[in-house]
Design brief:
This protein is α/β, with parallel strands linked by helices and 660 residues long. It contains 25 helices and 18 strands. Strands 1-10-7-6-5-4-3-2 form an 8-stranded parallel sheet. Helix 20 links the parallel strand 15 and strand 16. Helix 13 packs across helix 14. The radius of gyration is 30 Å and the shape is elongated.
Amino acid sequence: MTEIRNDAERLREHLKTKKILADGAFGTYFAARYGTDRLPELFNTEDPEKVTAVHRAYIEAGSRLIRTNTFAANTESLQCGRDELRENILAACENARRAAQEATDPDTNQAAASERAENVLSGSVASSEPAAASERAENVLSGAAQECFIAGDIGPIPMTGPESGKMMTDEYRFIIDTFLAAGIRILVFETFSETDEILPAIRYCRETYREENPFILVEICVNMHGYTNTGLGASKLIGSLAKCPDIDAVGFNCGIGPGYMKQVMDRIDMNIPKFVSVMPNAGFPQSAAGRMVFRSNDEYFALKMKDIAAAGADIIGGCCGTNPSVIRRMARDIDLTAAGHHFPVPDEAGKSAGEKHDGSFFSEENHAAAQRRGTCSKYIAVELAPPYLADDRKLMDAANGLLRLPVDVITLPDSPSGRTRADSILTGLKVGRETGITVMPHICCRDRNIIAVRSALMGAHMNGIRNLLVITGDPVPTMMRQEAKSVFNFDSVGLMRIIREMNAEQFPDDPIFYGGAINYNRRNIEVEFSRVRKKIEAGASFFLTQPVFTAEDAEKLRRFKAVIDAAAPAGGEKAKLLCGLMPLISRKNALFIQNEMSGINVTDDIVDRYRTDMTRAEGEAVGEDVVRNVIRMTRDFVDGYYFSIPFNRVYMLKEILPEI
């Protein structure tokens, strides 16, 4: 037990005085070497010699930290049960251990060592440097190679669904148990875009295996701008991981090449109390014969990694597209004897912590401007739907009709019900420019990936938009699915996190204010309570609700207000709650909302208040009366009201607002 425990301790001791060179990509190198598109993890049991040969190639190239062939070793990727998964991981550990033993202790397999040495010297094993090949061959024959550490490799588990988080954490625990049972005391969690599911498993590992004291490395995957594919920023993620007492080392892998990775690292504070690991891709892949291939660039890669190592990285290696040839060049060119990371502090020149602007629709300045148009004790938001076509006359007539009313913000839906309307942000720009009233476009997750979302947010900010309603979005209607596909890379909480990160890193002194929607009629109201708490945690500063019509729904809203207030951060402001109101204008309108709009509770009693022979004025009067009744039931606890008026009949507000 002492010897096994010391494996992790020896790595810690090594990193206190020297850097360590890890291996390169397993999957892309395995596919190129053996001409297969199958998961390399399947070969752990089917053809272990192929797996062992890859490990040996990296060790002989100079790697002193190799990762087991288990990146996709999980029940979802392998489509297997727990017993088969355990067998696969145990076989992977044995394959890596055998490769390390043969490469560093050739007496255990002299024949295999001699054959490999002859292959290196004869050129059947590729080498870009004959001298290095000769030296490596001599190491193989003499046993002079240094000690090799083996790390259990753990990648993301591609599970989805409402229970996926709990299921993933449970499976990570199983994987950890299997590695520890196999004698592995170094664990690498790599290519993660967020850490919510792995941190509980890491905590479990630390608490359960205190005596073994495993060495734990967590690597995140970011794009060239420093964001993960879920929109989280590198600075925040590294900062939070650096504070986690259960982790020994943090860093980056995959996603981008070494040049971009160095740029990302230069922009954030890497002076953290952890060892730092960096394992970039070879670069950007190109498509060839249906495969993604990476251009050979050993010299460039090693040069950039030399800069990263000199900046302070403790563990260096490669990810997709890298191979033993790259590692061999790094072993030759990079000084691994310099210890201790000493990353430079990011350049703050030209940045000033100026006074923070409050551009929220509920700011004192904005509310005062609304009050100059009329007096109202609550915040008032009015929804105006962008047009289906390019004709904006009705929209602008309605917007200008609000100029004599105490309206704090005009909101603009983002193609509701998955049917195309004019872009909400661009429409908002025109409405805001022509009326001077603050605008709040809705932005949903249905139609944009992370690249498009970030572009839209930067464009909105550039043009003065500081308020957004963030929603997951309605799915594309069934009849349109052959023409349009939903994106849904993330939900509203994920989108809020993206804006929060952009506020922190790009708009710190002039942030975007954002809020979310509340579906108070969700069948399981506790799920919606949980969603509200998550949105507040993600930075939501206000909530708008579906239209309320009954006393029962008003009481539900009161419960949501209690949840919102209780979830307020210590010392922070409570999020605002705006109650949805919809003055229905006719029996036909009431029946449509009752039967066609989910989440809105229009009762039969309300429908029956409308006669089929009513005049337009009579129908509007009923709608106004229903809304005034809801205001009386809610005005003691809500912060404001969110009006959605059918067919943009905003003149009805003149009859309703006096009640507020």
